[in-house]
Amino acid sequence: MNITTLFLDIGNVLLTNGWDRGMRREAAEKFNLDAEEMNERHHLTFDTYEGGKLSLDEYLTRLVFYEDRPFTREDFKTFMFAQSQQKPEMAQTTELIKGLKAKYGLKVATVSNEGLELTRYRIKKFNLGSYVDFFISSCFVHYRKPDSDLYCLALDCAQVMPEQVVYLDDRLMFVEVARGLGIHGIHHTGFAATRDAFGCLGLSLAE
Fold it and tell me: Which fold has domain 21-82?
């Protein structure tokens, strides 16, 4: 099997999510906001932010700063960015990806739905560019998963055929979309299962 390329999601695979429901709930508690109202506003506008059509400041105006607050935008942004972490099992997955890349000479790309400022922060903070060759993020290309155009664009950028690619994501629907295009899909549920799934595709660090 001639696999040459890995496509990776970022959230819940390499790092925690950038800005999920639990993080928004914690923000509501910390900043004394109405969590239900904030979530409703989030769902009405976040797709536009992830699609690269709103800045973070514009998103936050719609989410939080549509009225005066006793805290600043910078206070809120600092909290948002601090939610991005790499937990131990995610670090294991990262090391697996690095090892497979080195052993098999693979190209590695991220294929993710993320907003611009969060994407840039996460790439720099966690030095993702040290092993990721290029980043196909919704904020850069203005497509969002599960739109198949995002995967097709990633294939074009990598200059590979679908059967040459393994795609790793924690959301089964996104994996299913990739499989529908002929890409080998792995539903990431944890490090050990992902390691074994790569092994079944002939990609293993075992001697």
Answer: DNA polymerase; domain 1 (1.10.150)
